[in-house]
């Protein structure tokens, strides 16, 4: 169980708590972050993880806790974690053009969006974020959280472009547009725009981006988002 998630406290009895908190039975210590990865220790054993972001350290510690439950020695976990090559659409670098990196990420809820943007900021001067919400029901439910999160985590020079809600079928009421969410984010002071089409968006990013920026394409359930990230990279070349 993640030690930092206080809402899981009622489930702690009998569970293995992992994370950064002092109450964690499997605890990451002496953690160091860089733009490309992390170094940390568990039980006095030092690990190197070639994946950026505190959330990935937390994921690694979860894997360590699971392996310990199966009696795998800590020392036997060092090399596999050091050789970790990442997972598709989990802060996956699509490429670099004109000094601008394009990253494809599965972030789709407020907590994951905040983690992805924080990770991007550690390796770029400015974050150009693209987000496509998915599902009208989930987006309606998380509306306020999206507004609060983007308003909080975007820096004064960062940009946000939000695409229309991805609709995968079903009976959900399609009675609002992501443009309304963008308007609320912009009203909070963030530099946010609604992207009416992907063609417009690719052109807009190509005109706006400059060396040192990182373009972060976020969203879930729509496999064509990877193609969008590739189109952005192509337009920057």
CATH-derived architecture of the largest domain:
Alpha-Beta Complex
Beta-strand proportion: 15-25%
Helix content: 25-40%
Radius of gyration: 19 Å
Count of helical stretches: 7
CATH fold-level assignment of the largest domain: Protein-Tyrosine Phosphatase, Chain A
Number of strands: 11
**How many structural domains can be distinguished in the coordinates?**
2
Main sheet? 6 strands, mixed
Strand order of the largest sheet: 6-7-11-8-9-10
Category from helices, strands and their pairing? alpha/beta
Query: CA-to-CA gap between the ends?
Result: 44 Å
Unreliable residue stretches: none
N-to-C SSE string, H for helix and E for strand:
EEEEEHHEEHEHEHEHEH
Give the full name of the CATH homologous superfamily of the largest domain: Mur ligase, C-terminal domain
Structural notes for this entry:
- With 237 residues, the protein is α/β, with parallel strands linked by helices.
- It folds into 2 domains: 6-82, 3-Layer(aba) Sandwich (UDP-N-acetylmuramoyl-L-alanine:D-glutamate ligase), CATH 3.40.1190.10; 92-236, Protein-Tyrosine Phosphatase, Chain A (Alpha-Beta Complex).
- Helices cover 36% and strands 22% of the residues.
- The strands form 3 sheets. The chain has a 6-stranded mixed β-sheet with strand order 6-7-11-8-9-10, sandwiched between helices. It has a 3-stranded antiparallel β-sheet with strand order 3-4-5.
- A hairpin with a 2-residue loop joins strand 6 and strand 7 (100-105).
- The mean pLDDT is 94.
- It holds the Pfam family Mur_ligase_C.
- GO terms for molecular function: acid-amino acid ligase activity; ATP binding.
- Residues 89-221 form the Mur ligase C-terminal domain.
- This is Mur ligase C-terminal domain-containing protein.
């Amino acid at each position: 169980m993640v030690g930092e998630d206080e809402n899981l406290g009622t489930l702690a009895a009998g569970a293995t708590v992992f994370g950064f908190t002092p109450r964690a039975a499997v605890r990451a210590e002496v953690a160091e972050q860089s733009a490309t990865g992390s170094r940390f220790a568990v039980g006095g054993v030092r690990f190197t993880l070639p994946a950026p972001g505190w959330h990935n350290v937390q994921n690694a510690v979860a894997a360590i806790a699971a392996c310990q439950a199966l009696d795998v020695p800590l020392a036997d976990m060092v090399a596999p974690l050091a050789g970790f090559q990442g997972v598709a659409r989990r802060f996956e670098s699509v490429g670099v053009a004109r000094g601008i990196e394009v990253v494809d990420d599965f972030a789709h809820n407020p907590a994951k969006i905040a983690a992805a943007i924080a990770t991007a900021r550690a390796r770029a001067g400015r974050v150009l974020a693209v987000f496509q919400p998915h599902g009208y029901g989930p987006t309606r439910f998380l509306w306020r959280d999206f507004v609060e999160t983007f308003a909080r985590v975007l820096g004064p020079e960062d940009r946000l472009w939000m695409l229309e809600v991805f609709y995968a079928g079903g009976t959900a009421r399609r009675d609002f547009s992501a443009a309304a969410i963008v308007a609320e984010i912009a009203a909070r002071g963030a530099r946010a725009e609604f992207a009416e089409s992907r063609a417009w968006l690719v052109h807009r990013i190509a005109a706006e981006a400059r060396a040192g920026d990182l373009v972060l394409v976020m969203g879930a359930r729509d496999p064509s988002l990877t193609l969008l990230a590739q189109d952005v990279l192509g337009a920057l070349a």
